[in-house]
Structures are given as structure tokens and as C-alpha cells.
Design brief:
- By secondary structure, the protein is α/β, with parallel strands linked by helices.
- It is built from 18 helices and 16 strands.
- A hairpin with a 5-residue loop joins strand 13 and strand 14.
Length: about 525
Amino acid sequence: MNNHWLSESCAEGAKSAILLGPLEPDILKNEIEKNPVGVLWIASKFDNNLNLDQKITFFDKSLPLELFRKTLEDFIILNYDAPPNVKVSSLIANNSIKSYNEFLDLIIAEIDSTMRARRTRSETGFLRQKQIFSNLAGYLNNRLPQEWNDLGKGKLAVVVGAGPSLDVTLPFLNDKIPRPIIIATDSSLSALHKLNIDPDFVVSIDPEKSFSSCCISEYFPGTVILSSQSHSSWSENWKENICFLSGRVITEDWFGEKGISKTNISAINNAGLTALSVANFLDPAAILMIGMDLASTGHGQQRYAEVTGRDHIIINAAHYHEIPGNFSESVPTPFLSDWQETSEFCKKISKSKLLINLNDRGGKLDGSTLIHPNETEELKEALNQNISPFSTHQTSKLPPKKCLKEMGLNQLLTILTELCDQCWSKLQIVDLEDKTSIRNFLIDTFSNKDFASLFGDFAFSILPKISQGKKPSLEDLQIAFEQLRNLLWILEDAILESKPSKEFIQRFLTERFD
């Protein structure tokens, strides 16, 4: 390692760098020359006594971390193809190392989260967009309403994860406590079924996780809460008992521009964190978490409890991160950003309500009151004295979900149909044996802002491959072309499934909209 740096993390293809600590002018100049996309420098204000190049973004380390998060996000976006190099200066004084470590932890977590999201979009862009269009009718007509906000008044909400500790903690729900509102993650469904515990809500937001992978029985309890990217098998099985959350989805942002309001809470990161967000939204007197380990058992490979039927799924991650443990100094997790985001959310909601983590292992969640399963007598007594039982009758008569009314629906579907027809007319003249013909078609199609936004995740996966300087193969272009054609068919099916007026249907089937 170069003696100018305490630590270096170098990424293949990196053209940007994040530097922490005071630097000599020649070292800084060298980093500017090696990183044409830019340099982000975190140091004390008095270290910034140089004439900074315009390619340098300087951040004063005395400012709050929350301000730095936005600066960091904007900087990472500058280079889509590779993450930045991260280097820690050897000139950092011993009494300042701790404060720099806080920045370093945030940088590593943000790079990990961003690059994971980019890989996911690149690898599964077609799948995600397919699910978005398959769920389109449900999203337009069954979004979470604000009126569900007071469902938990005076009640206990239980969030059921699927971590290994669930084998020990799940029986607590049958142990003479007031009937809670149960919000289950998809992976915990089979476990609840085995113990004859019916959840009121089931949360699934993963486009690749089907109902059959979580439960082998025909078991469809309560209301299933989905994202627009959820596997379509969930809505197919729950029929009308579905509810959609908005999320970090480009297509939904485009819908928002057209007047389709997003839900008050979002599908975020994973099913466990989203279930916790739903529990908080219902505004109960207290929230109890079980199976929310956010870490793995053993050497880090065991992610699921045996009772879930998913314990055979082993995590073989290349890197494990050590995070603070509930009953040990640290525990391993391959999902650092999941734990960080969940812990931060727990800290936030614990300011307004009691948040209990019933667990015998797992990662520490800030703001939560940790209770071991062997020490629940006082908890049971407190719940029976202060919590009202929840009646399932309340979920059988839920207020209506947010939906798009007939005139607004027809207007939106007309725009969608126009975009489809415009694409079909261009698509028919493409020569599928000519790379230039396919590429020009894709570039022309996605240069339309509305079309690119509507096909958000798919467009995000295609555009980097056909951008200037890239040389995609004929096979890659043909695959992209065929995927686009499939998405158009699914979108047109969704238009008809969205319950438009008879007049619109007749026009859709007999006229062109372009």
C-alpha cells in the first residue's frame, strides 16, 4: 500500500475518487489527473487552503452526516460504469480517526447499496418492468389509502420477519397476549400457517419471489401489500384483497407527473423494512418485532428460520460485514445497507412509540427495546394491562383503496395507448439482422422522454448498453428488441384490465391512437 494512505479501496474501471483527510498539494493534484470524472474530498475546512480544481467537490467534515449523504449520492451518480476509489489519508491525526470512520462507513454502505441497485437494474430490468406492467391495473385501482392510518389505535402491531430467531420467538404470538395486528413478511408465511396464526397483512415487494416459493399450501390470509414490482403470483392468489404501495420506481414517478398520486408510505429496500413501515403507518400503541435478525447465524450463511421451510437457502456472499449484535459484540451480515436502513428507521419511529425487538440473536436495532424470549413474563403482563385486542372484523371492512376515477383513467390509458401505437409503427420496419437498424430504433424510441420514463427500469437497463462508445452484439440487440415487444404486449393487456369505459375499449380495439 502507498504510504500516503492508511487504506485504499480501488475499483476496476474507476474514474473518480473519494479522499478522506488532509492531503499534500502534489498528492491531490495526482488524484485529479488520475480521476477525470471527479474527486470528492472530505477534510477539515482549514485543510482546504488550496486553489481547488473545478473537478473537486470539497465537503467540510464538521458539517452533519445527513448533508454529506446528498453530496455523496450526487457524486456516485457521476460514473455509472464503476464505483469510485476510496482512499484514507495517512495524515489524519489519531484524535480525528473516529470522526472520519463515520464518513467512511457511510461511503462504503452507499457504494454497496448503489452498485447493488445498478447491477439489479441491469440484470433484471426486463423482469422488473414486466412485473410493473403486469401489476399496472392493480396499482392504478388499489393503492394504500390514508384512511387506514388509525387502524392500530390502542393496539399492538407485530412485524414478523423470517430470520433464524423466528424458531424461538414465533410461539409468543400464541402465548396469552392481546390479539395483535400481524404484518407478515412473505418469507414468514409458511411458518405462520404451521402455527395456525393468520396474519392481517402480508408484505411482498420482490419481483423474483413468487408465492409458491414462500408457501406450498393454498393459504391466502388477510390483505397482501405489494409494490408495483412484486411477483404477479401474489395478486393472482389474493384477488381483490390486494393493496399497492408506491416506491422508488421510475414508471411510478412518470405516473405521478400525470396526476396519479403516490401512497403516503413507500415500498422500501426489503419486505421486512416495508412491513415495519406499514406497522408504523397503522399507528399502533406499540410495535413488536420477531424474526427481524438482519444478520445471519453461524458463519453468516444461515438467513432463514427452520420453521419457514426456507432454511435450506444458504447465503454465499463474497463479503460479510460485522455489525453490532444484540447479545454479542458483533454479528456477520452480507446485507449492510439493509441493516443500516432498518436501524435508522427503528431509531426514528421509536421517538413516538414503543418499539420492542423480541430476539435471542441478530443485529442491534437502534431505538428498540431488546427482550430475550426467556424473559417475556413482564412483557405479557404489560401488554395485557395496556393493549386492546385487535378484531379481525376491522380488516374485513377496511376503507376503500385509492383508485383512478373513470375520466382520469381514460385520459391516462389514452396516453399509454398512444405511446404503444407510436412504438409499434417504428418497430415494424426494423431489420432484425442489422445491428445498426436495431440500435437506431432503440435509441430513437428511448429518446422520447415519456416512453423512457414509462419503461423506466427496462430503459435503465438498455440505455447504458447502446450509449455512445458501447458496442453491443447483434444477439444482445435482438434480445432487447424482443423484450421490448413483449413489454408492449403486456402493457396493452394491462390497459384493458384497468377497467376503462366501454367507449374507450371500443376505440382501443378499432382505432390507432398515434
